[in-house]
């Protein structure tokens, strides 16, 4: 509880005298992603220090995940997938030939 009040960058915050995991922290994104992927409704988030231990139940937030998923999908399709494909393209093939090859479409050169 002390760290939540004293350290601004701490991943928990106190709201109405209760400890909550900040939605702006990486841990919240990680927990929500794990809950979505595993199709689990909640998990217990444990904060341990040498002075105390706190367990906070985190409930899956579908609307938060929907927003994250759309952003992740955009990044994956716009950047990561292209990088993967470009590193697989043999030097002697043009892009269009390779796309046709990947899609198993017959490509007739002029």
From TrEMBL:
Coiled-coil segments on the chain, per record: none
Q: Where is the signal peptide?
A: none
Instruction: State the InterPro entries in the record.
Output: NF-kappa-B_Signaling_Reg, PDDEXK-like_dom_sf, Restrct_endonuc-II-like
Name the domain of life this protein comes from.
Eukaryota
Gene Ontology BP, a term: DNA repair
Q: What is the name of this protein?
A: Uncharacterized protein
């Amino acid at each position: 509880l002390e760290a939540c009040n004293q350290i601004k960058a701490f991943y928990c915050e106190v709201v109405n005298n209760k400890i909550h995991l900040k939605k702006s922290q990486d841990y919240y994104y990680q927990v929500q992603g794990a809950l979505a992927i595993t199709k689990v409704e909640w998990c217990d988030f444990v904060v341990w220090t040498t002075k105390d231990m706190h367990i906070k139940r985190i409930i899956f937030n579908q609307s938060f995940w929907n927003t994250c998923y759309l952003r992740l999908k955009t990044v994956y399709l716009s950047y990561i997938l292209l990088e993967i494909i470009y590193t697989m393209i043999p030097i002697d093939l043009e892009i269009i030939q390779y796309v046709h090859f990947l899609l198993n479409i017959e490509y007739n050169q002029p």
